[in-house]
Design a protein that fits this description.
116 residues; mainly alpha; 6 helices; 84% helix; 0% strand; SpoVA
Length: 116
């Protein structure tokens, strides 16, 4: 049942994003940025915690989940003071995700040939 909930939650989040792109005047970059900001706001509000507990990876893997992890990193610190400590708190939770993105992008660049 856990897989079904993850599939449904992730599917609904992605379907909403696709509808906003198709029906609205937003570009994919606008929607991606908005999903990250929405994840941060819902993460700080405590709403995304309940969604992540119910949906698991279906809520934490889309871009809104990335924003949630950024907010969670800041909230995990007792009281980050200043920009450096706040940034360190963010990277404590999202650092592995950033490393995976960079390594995956590098591997894709080595394997794939550009068309042009």
């Amino acid at each position: 049942m856990e897989y079904v909930r993850a599939f449904l939650a992730g599917g609904v989040l992605c379907a909403i994003a696709q509808l906003v792109i198709d029906r609205g005047k937003w570009t994919p970059a606008d929607v991606a940025g908005s999903l990250v900001v929405l994840g941060v706001l819902l993460g700080f509000g405590g709403v995304y915690d309940r969604l992540a507990a119910w949906a698991g990876a279906g809520a934490t893997m889309p871009l809104s989940g990335f924003g949630y992890w950024l907010a969670k990193g800041v909230m995990a610190e007792p009281r980050p003071e200043g920009l450096i400590e706040t940034g360190a708190a963010v990277f404590r939770f999202a650092g592995a995700l950033f490393a995976f993105i960079v390594a995956g992008s590098f591997a894709a660049a080595l394997i794939c040939k550009p068309k042009g």
